[in-house]
Design brief:
The chain is mainly alpha-helical. The chain has 13 helices and no strands.
Amino acid sequence: MAPVIFGAVVLLAAGFAFLNGFRDASTSVALAVRTRALTPSVAVLLAGFFNFVGALLSAGFAVAISRTWISLPGGTDGLTILAAGLASACAWGILMWWRGIPTSSTHALVGGLAGAALASLMVGGPGVRGVDQSLLLQVVLPLLLSPLVAYSGAFLLVYPATWSARYTQPSVVNQRFRRSQAVAAGAVAFGHGLQDGQRISAVLLLALIAGGYDDGGGIPSWVALLTAVLISAGTLFGGWRISHTVGYKITRIDPLRGSVAQIHSALLLLLGAVVFHWPLSSTHTVTAAALGAGENQHFSVTNRKLVFRIVALWVLTPLAAATLAFILALALSPLP
């Protein structure tokens, strides 16, 4: 039975990677399309390329996640936890895409794995080991604080940006910031690939360890390649429902503020992945930065009702994913 569940986990991880690119990566170029810094076709191709490169390079970070942060039980118990967690995260992601709500795939995955692990304990199986204070500080806290840092940072950075352009013609300002925004869009896509690629590669490596297929020699090349190809493919298909929400619905944004939001988002994602090894939600980071930059204007441009709805769903995401994964794990528990 273990090889069958392992195969199911690989398929679910592949689907999660594709859905991740389909839902999340298009948010990296939503603001650039909104301000006409890039055309939609060029923006999608740019995001697809840089997501591929970022996800391919993220494999080394996946080893640290899978071997030091958590430890799953071996055999069918660990594989069942992964299968239920991935299925729950995929189902929630599809629902949120259909509603056009930018929610975090990472939060859904963490919640799904937590709910499935709890179900394993409920039926007398082994639980997840390694969940300690360091995991909370390195994973949970960055995920919770990143939207606040993205919002406040983008809001404050608008001041020096507008001050530097105070004597420049508006048409020249828009032209310059559109150019910088095109570059920043590629950087955000690269950061998204680094951030989300390592999580998907880590899940596949955890599956290899639980299934007994890991030789301890690092991450297999097919894992990194599969992750990069599917995230990039999902990006190329484009989940424009969510991009429309980020670019057009939550706030009104010009090239200056769009550039500030994307540069700030890219820096946070790259620093989190490369320097601090913190998992940050690219969706939350980009959305919060866009909202922060858009809020710093002399008149109200924010759809506050929609923003409150999005934030409520951000809070609900890990809880909903955990609940669904808990149910799925209980249903799968007789299989072993």
